Amino acid sequence: MSGKNDLDKLRNTLSFHVPEKGSWKAVTPADYPKFMAAAKEQAAKGAREGGQPIGAVVVHLPTGQILGRGHNQRLQRGSRVLHAETDALENATMTGEAGGPPVPDNLMAECGMFTTMSPCPMCAGACAQFGLKLVVMAENETCSHGEFVLAHFGIEAVNLKDGEMLNTVNAWIKGPGASTWDNPELAVPLRRWIADEPGNPKGWVPS
Ligand SMILES: [Zn+2]
Q: Which GO BP terms sit in this record (predicted)?
């Protein structure tokens, strides 16, 4: 947990746009659907742009404030690195708005990632790199090969098994995303490593 001064600083900064300061409270599992709804809004935003329907939010767990929002931009921008989770990390600020002051490392390490899809190894690694303690995913049927990274670094992974989100992604894979879904970014050595990993959650086999 951060020191009291850090938390006070966060509260004072956020109070510029959060009127009900007194209502802030630590995130509990009962709050997970609310934050997943915010991640799903980001997924819908990506789909409206013609991109993959994958969204994420970074939430400061002690206060329940969303500090960053993001969506996958592989198709829109031809980006290899702006997945939903990395975009949310990139956009995270103390005010939760673009251009706000950057989030100090100690506060970032108190955050959780809420993502509409189980994170890929790159995004799971980014969560580990910045010390996040929790990753909540809507589903892991369409992707699960980053979960061994979460397990390796002791990051709690929670799968909400959200059928609505799963249906949305599957419809996109069979429809607009049919020609672009297959992920060429996962290099062969990483595919082999994942396949050999004892924690490989679903016996994922490299293609
Ligand atoms: Zn990713």
A: nucleobase-containing compound metabolic process
